[in-house]
Specification:
By secondary structure, this protein is α+β, with helices and mostly antiparallel strands. It is 18% helix and 27% strand. The radius of gyration is 34 Å and the shape is elongated.
Length: 346
């Protein structure tokens, strides 16, 4: 007979847990991972912000260059009027870019030879004009004159504080153009040039524009934000109006291509500092057929750790060495032909 034995019941396993050391190690590992993720997120955010700043800067510089180039491209556009076909050569004027009176815009079509303003007129860095408010020292400015390139308008669409151009379409009209304000009554008495049928008055006119581009030391000058900005001053409805084109543009320099043999092509490019445009033929503003634009723009916020060691050449005799302000800069250069001036000579 086998002896009776007592079998032990299996003891239930104790609940598993973490020791204090294990908890501390897990917390340390978690903190390291969290710190790494925070650093990665911070760097990505900083890179994204820097990319956005650079994109805005490049877009602003490109927009500024395009706006200025577009206006210069159409400088000297006077609708159907070609000054080179006049019996007597037009007498070109260099009026004050800040003038607001219609009579001071450089137009007088009631005399012979007719007086018209130069299509483009550079303003040297040292030349002061009161209407160029908060202008940044050492930067040039430029005035562009032309007629509106959009659809022409009727007499009813104009007023007495702007200047309008009417061109004769009748070959029998001895006077080829009228540049004047539109009177409130009987505009046909002033603008009396005729249509091709030589029987009815040509009631279509174009507004003449005068725009001056310059660099201001601020965008919002009331708040004195200190952001250099490309601005434009234009005479509209008898008053000068200033608008900002793009902020961050801190320097403008222009070389002017002179056509000295009257073939429509520039023979030489000159800066205002060189004194090449003397006012004595052939070195006169009406012989400018091209402009080489230099625009220097900068970011509106500094980049940590960035130092700009480059120098920016903005034409002969003009080199900009940036300060240690941690701002990134871009220099853009473009040569623009004054199509209307050049093609009339070809």
């Amino acid at each position: 007979m086998k002896p009776c034995t007592t079998r032990r019941r299996p003891q239930p396993a104790r609940d598993a847990g973490f020791t204090l050391v294990e908890v501390l190690v897990a917390l340390a590992v978690g903190m390291i991972i969290l710190l790494a993720l925070t650093v990665l997120f911070s760097r990505n955010t900083g890179n994204q912000s820097e990319l956005e700043r650079m994109t805005r800067q490049l877009e602003g510089a490109r927009f500024s260059l395009d706006a200025l180039s577009e206006d210069i491209l159409h400088a000297g556009y006077f609708g159907e009027f070609n000054p080179n076909t006049m019996p007597l050569a037009a007498a070109y004027q260099t009026p004050d870019p800040c003038a607001t009176a219609v009579s001071a815009q450089g137009w007088n079509t009631a005399v012979s030879p007719v007086q018209i303003p130069v299509p483009i007129q550079g303003i040297a860095a040292a030349t002061v004009h009161a209407c160029l408010a908060d202008r940044l020292a050492g930067t040039q400015a430029v005035t562009v004159r032309r007629a509106d390139t959009g659809a022409d308008m009727t007499f009813a669409g104009g007023n007495s504080t702007n200047l309008y151009l009417q061109v004769a379409r009748c070959g029998l009209d001895t006077q080829r153009l009228v540049a004047a304000a539109i009177p409130s009554t009987a505009p046909g008495a002033t603008f009396n040039l005729r249509r091709p049928d030589c029987a009815t008055v040509n009631d279509r006119v174009r507004r003449l524009t005068q725009r001056t581009y310059y660099i201001a030391s601020c965008n919002d000058c009331t708040a004195n934000d200190g952001i250099p900005t490309l601005k434009r001053v234009e005479m509209i409805d008898g008053a000068l109006r200033t608008v900002s084109i793009a902020e961050g543009v801190e320097n403008l320099q222009i070389e002017y291509g002179l056509d000295t043999d009257l073939d429509g092509r520039p023979n030489t490019f000159n800066t205002l500092a060189s004194g090449a445009i003397t006012g004595t033929a052939p070195n006169v503003w009406e012989n400018v057929v091209a402009a080489r634009i230099h625009l220097l723009s900068r970011s509106t916020a500094p980049t940590a750790g960035f130092i700009d060691t480059r120098s920016y050449v903005m034409g002969p005799g003009v080199t900009v060495v940036p300060p240690t302000d941690r701002l990134k800069r871009t220099l853009m250069t473009s040569t623009v032909r004054l199509v209307n001036v050049g093609m009339r000579r070809e």
